[in-house]
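Weekly modeling sync, notes
Attendees: S.R. (lead), two postdocs, one rotation student

Agenda item 3: backlog of single-chain predictions. S.R. asked that every request posted to the team notebook include the full sequence so nobody has to chase files. The rotation student volunteered to paste the first one in as an example of the format we agreed on. Action items at the bottom.

Example entry:
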Amino acid sequence: MTTGLSRRPLQQWEVRRQRAVKLLARRPHAAPPLEFLLELLPLQSELFRWSTEAEWPGAIVTGAGDDTPKLRLDALSIDLLVPRFATFLEGLLPHSPDVLAEIGAGVQAREPTQRALLKHYLAGQDLSEIAAGLDCEARQLEFFPRAFMQPIAEALARDTAVPEDWQENFCPMCGRLPQLALLRDDAAARGRRLLVCGLCASEWTFRRGVCPHCGEERPGQLFIHSVPDPTHVYVDECKSCSAYLKTVDLRKDGLAVPLVDEIATVELDIWAEERGLWKIQPNLLGM
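Predicted structure, as returned to the notebook:
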């Protein structure tokens, strides 16, 4: 049985909140996603706190192989999660955009739907059949289990070390795809590139000059697209597979909070989509 996750302060949630407030003042065109994020963060921080105190037997596989994610999210107890999920929906829906509120109300109305949705999401299974029953798109429906599970997965991942030699393009902790990349200087390397998981927020080193989707390495196929404001967030494009993700350069803005700054730069996503690019992993709000 895996128990006793350390009780760590919730500073990262307050840091994210403060950054969202600051960017809301600076970037009014990004107000809708940032305002929604500010409603979501308190609910997630409470889930994170609860997760550090709960017992999660079988969820952490410390002896996993070098190429095997260490978190077994499908081992989490659905019976334990469903009541929390219902409470999460109750707190979130009054603040949700109309489309999400309507979908969420359908999920909230039936416990069997909640159970099926969590079970499928934790197992990495397609949500299309459940979405069809709610008359919505699977991408829209995914928001609810992902927003709910994000702080739980982050809490579970915090006390397990990321393998230093991990070279894969998926998260070594939960197996999900990267949402963004970041660059920073540290003792090990200058301009170190890390990928950030779209679910548990784990970070792992990944080579620069390589597409995180298809592995393309030819310079003529890899492009960086930046804008005057902000200068610390830009688009990495791979012409071979038409994939992109955003990079947050912490060397240019050490106060950036990558998961928040990525959401606040919605204009870069609009630009990329207009060029026919697709995002390796949309952010929590579907952009």
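Discussion: group reviewed the output briefly. The chain is about 40% helix and 10% strand.
Action items: rotation student to repeat for the remaining queue; S.R. to check formatting next week.
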